Amino acid sequence: MAPCGIVPYAAAKVRVAAAPRRTHICPVITALGAAVRRQVERLGSVGEFVADSARALSQTRTWTANAMQQARRLGVDSLPIGLLIAAFTGIVLALLANYSLTGAVPLYFVGVLLEKTITLELTPVLTGLALAGRVGANIAAELGTMRVTEQVDALETLAYDPYAYLVVPRVLAGTFMFPVVVALSMLVALGFGYIAARGIVGLTASEFQQGVQLFYTNFDIEYGLVKSASFGFAVSLIGCISGLRARGGAEGVGRAATNAVVYSAVMILVLDAFWAMTWLQAKRT
Amino acid sequence: MIRLDNVSKAFGEKQVLKGFSLDVREGETVALIGFSGSGKSVAIKHVVGLLEPDSGTVFVDDKEVPALPRKELYELRSHIGYVFQFAALFDSLTIGENVGMGLVKQGKLSPPEIETRVAEALALVDLPGNQARYPAELSGGMRKRVGIARAIALRPKYILYDEPTTGLDPVTSAVIDELMLRMQKQLGVTGVVITHDMRSAYRVATRIAMLYEGSVRQVGTVQEIQNTTDPVVRQFIEGRATLDQEAPRAAPTPGGRR
Questions:
Q1: pTM exceeds cut of 0.90
Q2: Residues on chain A bordering chain B, Cβ-to-Cβ distance under 8 angstroms
Q3: How far away is chain A from the Cα of B232, in angstroms, using its nearest Cα?
Q4: What is the pLDDT of residues B126-170, one digit of tens each?
Q5: Model ipTM?
Q6: Which fold has domain B2-79+156-248?
Q7: Residue (of A133, A167, A125) closest to A259 by Cα position
Q8: Are the beta carbons of B74 and A154 separated by less than 8 Å?
Q9: Which is nearest to B9 in space by CA: B50, B47, B30, B39?
Q10: Where do the structural domains in chain B lie, given as residue ranges?
Q11: Chain B residues within 8 A of A160 when measuring between CB atoms
């Protein structure tokens, strides 16, 4: 910091005109450096958090007690919202397919479009985004409240590792239950897509089945479920990080919940692009 | 024995502790007094390793707390009970589960033995039969007593009380004072009590230490503190708004609760 703006006296006399320019540039460089440093530190602390959580996996006796409860809270309790979104997604997709394909291709292609979009993209991403709000905010608010009311400190004084007791069960529940919710959502979306196509377009069951099976591969389901597991991991981990770093009472808890939802949503889109660019592209070639 | 040796701790630019040193001998109860935000809670959080000193160190039973590996730190913590200022009970658990939580973690007792120990601990704080209730159903005083029950259920060697009587009515405060005395005299538990309540400090403490501007201003027996000539300590123990009846109140200390 010291060199910025400090010019030896003789040099200052000679380079009077240059001095103001340096004072303008230096704060910018300083601010840029500080911002980069903050981001690197933040990234490092996230890495440390993940490493501590991975280490806590070995404390099975501590986390198994909570894992089933979290699986119910994060997974089973999320089913209604997940299935509701899936139902409407199926209906809208069927109508969109009908609108797009009318007269150009056989009607059973509605089934093709539904199967591909529902399994590969829409159900994992839409359900993931909905669950990012529900699960991410839930975890961040709960752990944030525990943090600001010293419950996390109390856990530590009782010789519990907060990573084993709080983080591991939630991250495992998120990782394993997101695919379950998404798998059921895929079925519901296809079911409602078929009902809409049959009721509005007049597609028969055999035509729909023919369309669904035409380009179906097991990869479609596999890709959608693995992707949703990665979403579940990211959403629950971000919720835990935001919650356990909450500071400053109710305002801090609110900020933690907001951050959890925003970062989770962004992370879902980033992961979605990542999987498309890597696994999906590799499959195509 | 607990020994805080020249501990310094800052949060950002806020220097809370500056060369804080205090010895707590086996079997005694030391009351730690000081202005609000002077860093008393910060000091005792170092004892259980919830905070690490920027400089200086802390010893418990000759073990250097900041240098302990995680496993040994958890082992040490199982011998130290910590009573939080606002109880810090787990909202989603019943009172029985809260009190028995440390015992479950230790894994030394069977579930029926844990139930018995929990019932004993709750009876000691005059809350028998409340195992099935939730923290939200209890008053502030009851919650504090549950917090104490949770700490004593482990039968710890040391107990750290963070303002155990703040915000309580005089009768409940007296009950908690009695409990702290019982812990010391009957079970030989070594204690540190953070308090602003001088009546409580005189009653339960074998020694009193005053934390002022990051370090110990004075430490001594109850009688020594009562007869002190230090103007800052006198101002505090007498609860006067001015220092030596003339000067304004001593400037607020730079510390803060974390």
A1: no
A2: 61-62, 145-146, 149-151, 153-161
A3: 31
A4: 899 999 999 999 988 889 899 999 999 999 999 999 998 887 888
A5: 0.86
A6: Rossmann fold (3.40.50)
A7: A133
A8: no
A9: B39
A10: 2-79+156-248
A11: 101, 105
